[in-house]
Amino acid sequence: MTEGHTITIEQGDQHVRVVHGGQILAETDRPLVLRETGCPDRYYIPAEDVRADLLTPSGTHTVCPFKGTASYWSLPDAADLVWAYPSPKPDIARIKDHFCFYEAEVS
């Protein structure tokens, strides 16, 4: 990481649920919690706990100098709602095969 910028990843035990339009898109008790300088905490959900069958791959890709290239997925009424890093940088390799949503309920 560059000086002053940190990313930490911890195994969470929070219950995380993602609901959109009344439909559960993801639900897990084993999220990874990613904390990054200047960003809100993000919950990365294991792929097995995501209803990927409801998501459509998007053509959107973004590049983070710290995490790598992100790919995005959409719903018919919510573009680029979820993202993942298929080949994350080595320092954050734990988030491989995990999805992150803009909207997540934590309990």
TrEMBL record:
Query: DUF427 domain: from which residue to which, for each copy?
Result: 16-103
Transmembrane region positions? none
Q: Which InterPro entries match?
A: DUF427, DUF427_sf
Superkingdom as given in the UniProt entry: Bacteria
Spell out the protein name for this chain.
DUF427 domain-containing protein
The source organism is: Streptomyces colonosanans
